[in-house]
């Protein structure tokens, strides 16, 4: 099967259908693409990485949080190892920063010591208890009342968008089809065996289906008569600071955790920014990604307990992400109601870290329930590398410009993103189709002005490269058109009183 990406036609049949184009579904599709199988990933949005996978902390957790023996514990540690092996080849920005869980008093030091033991049980290497002086030497801006910390050298940070796109692109390179703007709305089941998936764009015959639908994974399970779990959205809000204050912290700084979450952290990002957040608030609406005054005030107060001198004046944006909370552990395994349906559901933190390991576990499970796996000799484990102009030295930049004049045209001034990079992001095997899709892939619009300057120019490049009118270019979601034609305007189309 030839790989493809976009809102093209749905094939009539597939060996495996994966539902959901978040980091979990895309990592599963990539793992499946190692084998001689026809794989179709179905995503309701116009792009991958538009759900929880686009709004999280971007941390590759070392793996000391989860209770030993849980899926979370097993898959976190394996996932972190897999990123270390795969990230560079797949074009996923990753930095081995290490992480610190900061304690403020003797009681918290006990919790931190417990976390170290738990980490050792989970197989996390290199965990150390640091005293106050060690912590302050590593993090000069940390609160003076720190008592000590747990140092995890295998903690790291990653770009969550490019992790998702990296897995997706590699799956497509290896023959998977990713069909976007297509929602799963039902299953055909015969004698308790899944035989087809029904979507808003027709049906695909398939006997093996993976449910990686994130916040909607319980709804998808119910479509097959499976009500074995429920999902409660748990919102986390963030504030992102400009790259000018990127030196504020060197590593991921966690507070000592509580029962609900890992707490408010202060962390660098792979792109040189700093963020604070997230909080953890249970909500009802799986689409409610609003930030709130109360939530932001709470995360500022929490972050100040770790780094008192927060540069609030350099905040460039706020956002919220929704955890798909299904209980204490991930919901991973065959559906008790329908043969052939396997869940990768309720994947809250550390789901980003665990994603490639979830891919391995799900493929093994599919084999256990009857999927035949024959390794694909032509499997290509890496993606084509795309130069990041901003990160290159002047001589290399000059050589690129000499070879392609579009490298000489800076479209996003804040992040120094060139037209050549934007064109490559659109033309790649899992190419951007929306303005935010470009932002997620190359960061045009991710800087201080948040797209105020480059947004219209990115829109024009998308229209040109996709061969569509500017009025057909969308910001992100299905109906998020940015411009109206004069004719539409005169007809009152899209204009709301
Ligand atoms: C605040 C917060 C902080 C976090 N921090 C971290 C962290 O630092 N490290 C870490 O490891 N993890 C972290 N996580 C967890 C991590 O982000 C998630 O585990 C991961 O992104 C889940 O990916 P997913 O693919 O399961 O879900 P999603 O990314 O939500 O993808 C599911 C996809 O399914 C699609 N879909 C839904 N229903 C249908 C349907 N019927 N038909 C077709 N498509 C459908 C959706 O459109 C969506 O794109 C955090 C999460 C949050 C919310």
Please give a handful of descriptors for the protein shown:
FAD/NAD(P)-binding domain; seven-stranded mixed sheet; binds flavin-adenine dinucleotide; 497 residues; 3 domains; D-Amino Acid Oxidase, Chain A, domain 2; alpha/beta; 30% helix
Can you tell me about this structure?
This is FAD/NAD(P)-binding oxidoreductase. Residues 15-365 form the FAD dependent oxidoreductase domain. The chain has three domains: 1-94 and 156-228 and 326-384, FAD/NAD(P)-binding domain, CATH 3.50.50; 99-153 and 232-321, 2-Layer Sandwich (D-Amino Acid Oxidase, Chain A, domain 2), CATH 3.30.9.10; 389-490. The protein is built from 13 helices and 24 strands. The protein has helices at residues 23-32, 71-90, 106-122, 132-138, 160-173, 217-223, 293-304, 351-368, 394-403, 419-427, 435-442, 455-466, 486-490, and strands at residues 4-6, 16-19, 39-42, 59-60, 94-95, 99-103, 128-131, 148-152, 156-158, 177-179, 184-190, 193-199, 202-205, 208-211, 232-241, 252-255, 265-268, 274-277, 281-282, 315-325, 331-334, 341-345, 410-412, 417-418. The strands form six sheets. A seven-stranded mixed sheet has the order 1-10-3-2-14-22-21, sandwiched between helices. Strands 15, 17, 18, 19 and 20 form a five-stranded antiparallel sheet that branches. Strands 7-8-6-16 form a four-stranded mixed sheet. Helix 1 (23-32) links the parallel strand 2 (16-19) and strand 3 (39-42). The chain starts with a strand and ends in a 7-residue tail after the last helix. Bound molecules: flavin-adenine dinucleotide. Residues 19-25, 42-45, 50-53, 56-59, 61, 183-184, 212-216, 220, 236, 278, 321-323, 347-353 line the site of flavin-adenine dinucleotide.
């Amino acid at each position: 099967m030839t790989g493809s990406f976009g809102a093209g036609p749905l094939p009539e049949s597939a060996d495996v259908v994966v539902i959901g184009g978040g980091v979990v579904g895309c990592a599963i599709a990539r793992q499946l693409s190692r084998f001689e199988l026809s794989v179709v990933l179905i995503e309701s949005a116009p792009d991958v990485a538009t759900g929880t996978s686009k709004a999280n902390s971007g941390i590759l957790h070392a793996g000391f949080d989860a209770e030993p023996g849980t899926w979370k514990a097993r898959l976190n540690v394996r996932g972190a190892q897999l990123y270390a092996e795969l990230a560079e080849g797949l074009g996923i920005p990753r930095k081995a920063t290490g992480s610190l869980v900061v304690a403020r008093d003797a009681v918290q030091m006990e919790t931190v010591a417990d976390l170290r033991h738990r980490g050792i049980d989970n197989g996390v290497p290199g965990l150390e208890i640091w005293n106050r002086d060690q912590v302050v030497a590593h993090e000069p801006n940390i609160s003076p009342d720190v008592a000590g910390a747990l140092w995890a050298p295998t903690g790291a940070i990653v770009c969550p968008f490019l992790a998702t796109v990296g897995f997706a692109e590699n799956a497509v390179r290896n023959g998977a089809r990713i069909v976007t703007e297509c929602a799963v709305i039902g299953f055909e089941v015969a004698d308790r065996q899944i035989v087809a998936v029904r979507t808003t764009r027709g049906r695909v015959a398939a006997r093996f289906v993976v449910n990686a639908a994130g916040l909607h994974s319980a709804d998808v399970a119910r479509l097959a008569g499976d009500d074995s779990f429920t999902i409660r959205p748990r919102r986390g809000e963030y504030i992102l600071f400009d790259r000018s204050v990127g030196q504020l912290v060197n590593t991921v700084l966690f507070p000592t955790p509580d029962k609900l979450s890992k707490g408010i952290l202060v962390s660098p990002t792979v792109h040189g920014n700093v963020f604070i957040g997230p909080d953890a608030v249970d909500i009802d609406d799986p689409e409610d990604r609003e930030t709130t005054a109360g939530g932001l005030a709470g995360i500022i107060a929490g972050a100040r307990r770790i780094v008192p001198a927060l540069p609030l004046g350099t905040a460039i944006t706020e956002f919220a992400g929704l955890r798909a909370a299904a209980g204490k552990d991930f919901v991973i395994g065959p559906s008790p109601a329908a043969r052939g349906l396997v869940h990768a559901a309720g994947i809250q933190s550390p789901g980003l870290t665990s994603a490639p390991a979830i891919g391995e576990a799900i493929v093994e499970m599919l084999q256990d329930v009857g999927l035949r796996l024959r390794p694909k000799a032509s499997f290509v484990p890496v993606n084509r590398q795309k130069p990041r102009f901003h990160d290159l030295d002047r001589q290399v930049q000059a050589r690129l410009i000499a070879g392609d004049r579009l490298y000489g045209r800076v479209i996003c001034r804040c992040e120094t993103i060139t037209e050549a990079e934007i064109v490559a992001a659109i033309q790649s095997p899992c190419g951007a189709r929306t303005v935010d899709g470009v932002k997620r892939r190359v960061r045009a619009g991710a800087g201080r002005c948040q797209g105020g300057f480059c947004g219209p120019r990115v829109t024009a490049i998308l229209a040109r490269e996709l061969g569509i009118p500017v009025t057909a270019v969308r910001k992100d979601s299905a109906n998020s058109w940015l411009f109206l034609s004069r004719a539409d305007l005169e007809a009152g189309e899209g204009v709301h009183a």
